Amino acid sequence: MNKKSIFIIILLSTLAFGYYSSTGANEVSMRYTSNPQLPTILPSSEWLGTPLDSKGRFVNLYHPFESSFGDLIKWQTTKNPQKEEKKSENRRLLVELDSIIWKGSDDYLVWLGHATYLFRIDGTVFLTDPLLLDNTFLKRDSDLPFPVHHMPRVDFLLLSHNHRDHCDEKTLRFLAEKNPNMKVLTGLGLQTIIESWLKGHTVQEAGWYQQYTLLDSGLSITYVPSRHWSRRWLWDDNQSLWGGFFIQNGEKSIYFMGDSGAGAHFADIQRHLGSPDYCLMGVGAFKPEWFMHQAHISPSDAISAFNTLQGKFFIPMHFGTFDLSDEPRMEPWDILVQNQSRIDGALVEPIIGRNLMADR
Questions:
Q1: Is 340 helix (H, G, I), strand (E, B) or coil?
Q2: pTM score > 0.85 for this model?
Q3: CA distance 315 to 332
Q4: Which CATH number describes the domain made up of 3-347?
Q5: SS3 category, 112
Q6: Cross-strand pairs, 126
């Protein structure tokens, strides 16, 4: 591979997924922030808010992000030991649209691939981290269960962080045009990135353990920590927050992990908010583990995190739709099936288009 090819690969990877290098939580000079207009569910009497380093960048609670640009180069220029296995992989995620889902007023939870879930609770429709249309960097390896213009009405759009496989400009512009009353719930700092894509839609930003105030009574959404990082361009490393969502009503609860490495924050979430019924857990884009482990949890570690959360249903995501890493497309699912006896709950096969709440 010549130097020009290496440069192009590194440049595309940087623009597509961003990169960050910092001592993070090891900084001596720390300060804390939150949205003063939102209530905070205090995890402890010592909670001061979402931490920032001395340069005003968000940092993880327990694990500083210590990878370097050199690690990115090393990954991109090192031969993938599973290259041939990955190349010969011919399995795809199953797609089965159940048209009955959209009829009536029952709750539903439908995977659309990667980190995109469409779900309805008490008549309100939510959509997480949508990437529905191919863009310059990312092409789908799995089909949507319906033509994108048949997307049901969306009341609330939940954006976990600013990376391009979770926050896609083309998709957000499409959704904004189609849903004039849609509201956006996200983390601190993301509004400046997305507001020009919207059409005056309401955006509410939260810090970790803050609850959004735009929902009807009886339904709450809390923005919760993850172990990750953010970057959209070359100059905005960790200037917007990353996290997950904990959705609750009187009957059920859903935990959406977003992107995360392993960490003590899973125990914190369970201790402060309770055990979720449906755990939407990322399991893909985890190889090589020496490089990915700080940002993307492995299937095995995701099982441990699910058990820590004490959830009822383990629903995997973040695999099979986009080619982001070294493992074959369906390997994360295979690992989960092989280790199903370790899961203290029910493993749900995430068939795209199926109501994953049905009969549960």
A1: helix
A2: yes
A3: 12
A4: 3.60.15.10
A5: coil
A6: 119, 156
Report the half-sphere exposure of 31 (CA within 13 A, side-chain side): 6
Residues of the chain with pLDDT under 50: 1-27
Res 28: pLDDT: 53
Is residue 75 helix, strand or coil?
Answer: helix
CA distance 225 to 240: 13
In order of 31, 134, 142, the CA distances from 59 in angstroms are 11, 31, 33
Structure confidence at residue 67 (pLDDT): 65
What are the structural domain ranges in the chain? Answer: 3-347
**Residues with Cβ < 8 Å from 160, sequence gap 6 or more?**
115, 128, 129, 166, 186, 187, 226, 242, 243, 244, 245, 256, 258, 259
The DSSP string of 280-310 is EEE--S--SHHHHTTTS--HHHHHHHHHHHT
> Across-strand partners of 194?
none
Amino acid at residue number 140: R
Task: Identify the pLDDT of residue 1.
Answer: 36
Q: What integer pLDDT is reported at residue 105 of this predicted model?
A: 86
Helix (H) or strand (E) holding 12: helix 3-17
Residue 305 token pair: 């995190």
Cβ count near 103 (within 10 Å): 8
Tell me if 120 sits within 8 A of 108, measured CB to CB: yes
Spatial distance between the Cα atoms of 26 and 91, rounded to a whole number of angstroms: 43
